Amino acid sequence: MMRLATLLVLSGALLAREPLAQRIAHTDPSRYRVAKSVHGGAGELHYMGLFDAQTFNTNVIFLHRGVIPPGGGIGHHFHNHMEEMFVIFDGEAQFTIDGRTSVLKAPAGAPCRMGHSHAIYNPSDKPVQWMNIAVGTIKGKYDAFDLGDNRVDVALDAKPVFITMKLDRALARPVDALHGGKGTVSYRRALPPEVFYTNWSYVDHYVLPAGASIGKHRHEGIEEFWYVMKGSGVAHVNQESAPVKEGDAVPVFLGETQSWDNTGGDELEFMVVGVARVKWALDTQTVK
């Protein structure tokens, strides 16, 4: 009886799930909200939420996308029960982790692990394309402790003394027929699970040439979102397909079969974040 009830609950959840085209989040600058002095930071931040804590079954808290205007930033603050990572997609910005600051050039990011502090500041005269990813130890629980420091005019380390993430195409390796797909895809695991204390499992980087694809595969214990950095193509999840383009974020839930096609004339580039249901329980199954 208990098993039947569990199956009915799971079936209801699957039936209630939005169609693929509706669950894809689209970056839309016209929907950005203006936030001033975020965590005591300088200037403004313009952003929108793409996903929230209700989107996933795992402990993803949110995915935010926006811009840091010139002279803007996010002030120095701690996270004690969660982890965040600021990512920039163009230009450069000053990243701070635990009070040490360095300039990172896009596309790049720096994870702030649980129990540590971070900040970001844009000292340039151009806006910087920005993303923030948050994963917690408790579903839906966000925490922050502000330090009252905007990190303006601070000393800079020439080389970062903290963990950084580089989405550098030159570091990716070629993989033929990935999961049975077409052509040769460039792939790299930019951050492995060892970096994180939470169930955050990885950040992957893919580049698909025109006409290439990633074949059918699934993760029973991991949820992902695929963020389109450049290009356009088609996402296939279970029996559905939907077009994707630059700025789109596609959630893929536990156990779903996925594949990806570059149907455009240019390269299709993804940043993929994976979050496990259970720490270290990583799985990938190619689907025939």
Walk me through what this model shows.
The two termini are 34 Å apart. The chain has 2 domains: 21-166, Jelly Rolls, CATH 2.60.120.10; 169-286, Sandwich (Jelly Rolls). It has helices at 2-16, 20-23; strands at residues 25-26, 33-36, 44-51, 60-68, 73-79, 82-88, 92-97, 100-105, 108-112, 116-121, 128-136, 145-146, 165-166, 173-176, 184-191, 200-208, 213-218, 222-230, 232-237, 240-245, 248-252, 257-261, 268-276, 285-286. A 7-stranded antiparallel beta sheet has the order 1-21-18-23-16-15-14. Strands 2-3-4-11-6-9-13 form a 7-stranded antiparallel beta sheet, with no helix packed on it. A hairpin with an 8-residue loop joins strand 15 and strand 16 (200-208). By secondary structure, it is mainly beta.
- Count of extended strands: 24
- Supply the number of helical segments: 2
User: Which consecutive residue ranges, at least 5 long each, have pLDDT under 50?
Assistant: 1-16
Radius of gyration: 19 Å
Strand content: over 45%
- Predict the CATH topology of the largest domain: Jelly Rolls
Please bin the fraction of helical residues.
Answer: under 10%
Q: H/E series, N to C?
A: HHEEEEEEEEEEEEEEEEEEEEEEEE
Let me know the CATH homologous superfamily of the largest domain: Jelly Rolls
CATH structural architecture of the largest domain = Sandwich
